[in-house]
Design brief:
- The protein has 423 residues and is an alpha+beta fold.
- It has 14 helices and 12 strands.
- Helices cover 30% and strands 14% of the residues.
- A 6-stranded mixed sheet has the order 1-4-5-6-7-8. A 4-stranded antiparallel sheet has the order 10-9-11-12. A two-stranded antiparallel sheet has the order 2-3.
Length: 423
């Protein structure tokens, strides 16, 4: 009898443990649909979300030495890894063609940015799938090739026309600073994206949602690549948070570069920089706090405010690090006469009327504070991840904390010797 009682008690105990564990998992690991609903509520989006197709986006041309990569010059210039406007800021610089970009105005306060990319090693022509096909073709050339192909080649050419292996989706409130992120990468998925705030229709109704001029998948094309719900089309919120979207995009909520900027429909940096960064969803908030991300600037230099932070929100993750080198003169190159200058590939930072030696001082100081935000000569403040974390008077530019730790940043400006030979 005693053994039976112990057995019942243990059963109840394990059931209770499982129940509470399951409840915790369910509440903390939202699926994509739950996350989107949370995003809409917190950002203030009451309208139904638009149906998204990567093919509706505007193709972003990629240039090499001022020449746009196209079908005619693909073989000639596409092996140069250093393109003028890389769509991926790092590694081999992301010089892949056929990226499609959309900046959609959801309402007066909110935008949605959809970036669909095909990524791979262009130097050896290893795309996300093996191919010897000319990758300089635009959307219409790829569609025509697909439509005219025999049945045996249809699947392969549809991959070329309407699959992407890196999809990024950002919701951003341009008044409050709240932001949400969805992503899928690493494997090919069709550019026909499922509804985000309603159930997935059956196959025929789903395909009817898209522009009739966009070719539908051929009969034997893998169904799971185009008819899948949002949970299959995107990584989970917890995965996406851990993958680093918060690290890269926190400064302005979106990322500005020669590839994408206000000319492509994004709000200007001047509008976005004063905003806090308030990511929606516990996984994103936890990631921000875990990495102790701070906004930074420097003490005045020769009586002048830090040049970099006059326009930008500089943070210890996202705008610091190698991004400074890329933005102010490509890595391993000396600083040019006005931050960046000359050919198209260097036109990122705008020209400013400042002495070269002064520019070098400001860049050196901000780089030092990026690495040592609490050092003397540096200032830092919280800019997220929730409103409760924001310092008093944040909206009026207050809340900065002076660094008090000994280090190089206080003296780096005074000790830096400008070398005229670097010009």
């Amino acid at each position: 009898m005693k053994a039976k009682f112990i057995g019942i008690a243990l059963t109840i105990f394990f059931i209770s443990v499982y129940y509470f564990w399951h409840q915790k998992q369910s509440s903390s690991d939202l699926d994509v649909y739950q996350y989107v609903q949370q995003c809409k509520a917190e950002l203030g989006v009451t309208e139904p979300l638009p149906q998204l197709s990567c093919l509706d986006g505007t193709p972003v041309p990629i240039y090499v030495n001022n020449q746009e990569i196209n079908e005619e010059n693909w073989e000639q210039i596409a092996e140069d890894r250093q393109c003028d406007n890389p769509h991926w800021l790092g590694g081999d610089m992301g010089c892949w063609t056929y990226s499609h970009l959309q900046v959609l105005q959801l309402n007066e306060d909110n935008i949605m940015v959809l970036n669909c990319r095909q990524k791979g090693n262009q130097l050896s022509k290893n795309w996300f799938r093996r191919t010897n096909t000319n990758l300089g073709m635009d959307q219409y050339q790829r569609r025509e090739k697909f439509e005219r192909a025999n049945l045996n080649d249809k699947d392969e050419l549809y991959f070329l026309y309407n699959t992407f292996n890196d999809i990024g989706l950002i919701f951003r409130n341009i008044k409050t600073g709240k932001a949400c992120y969805l992503t899928q990468y690493g494997e090919a998925v069709a550019g026909f994206l499922p509804p985000l705030d309603k159930p997935l229709p059956d196959k025929d109704k789903f395909l009817a949602l898209f522009n009739p001029e966009q070719s539908r998948p051929p009969k034997d094309f893998p169904v799971e690549l185009w008819h899948r719900d949002a949970n299959a089309a995107f990584k989970s919120p917890s995965f996406t948070a851990a993958a680093g979207c918060v690290d890269c995009h926190n400064a302005h909520g979106v990322k500005y570069s020669p590839y994408i900027n206000s000319k492509h429909g994004l709000p200007t940096i001047g509008l976005m920089a004063p905003l806090p960064f308030l990511p929606v969803g516990e996984p994103y908030i936890e990631h921000f706090r875990k990495n102790e991300i701070l906004q930074i600037t420097t003490d005045d230099i020769d009586g002048e405010k830090q040049l970099c932070t006059r326009c930008h929100k500089m943070t210890t993750s996202g705008t610091c690090g190698y991004s400074i080198d890329i933005a102010t003169g490509h890595p391993n190159r000396v600083l040019m006469p006005w931050l960046t200058t000359g050919a198209v590939q260097n036109r990122w930072m705008p020209p400013i009327e400042v002495e070269l030696s002064q520019i070098k001082k400001h860049v050196s100081a901000i780089k030092c504070c990026c690495e040592n935000p609490h050092a003397k000569g540096c200032k830092s403040r919280q800019f997220g991840p929730t409103r409760a974390d924001l310092p008093k008077d944040f909206e009026r530019g207050g809340g900065w904390v002076d660094g008090n730790e000994p280090g190089l940043c206080e003296s780096i400006v005074e000790s830096y010797q400008w070398n005229a030979e670097e010009l």
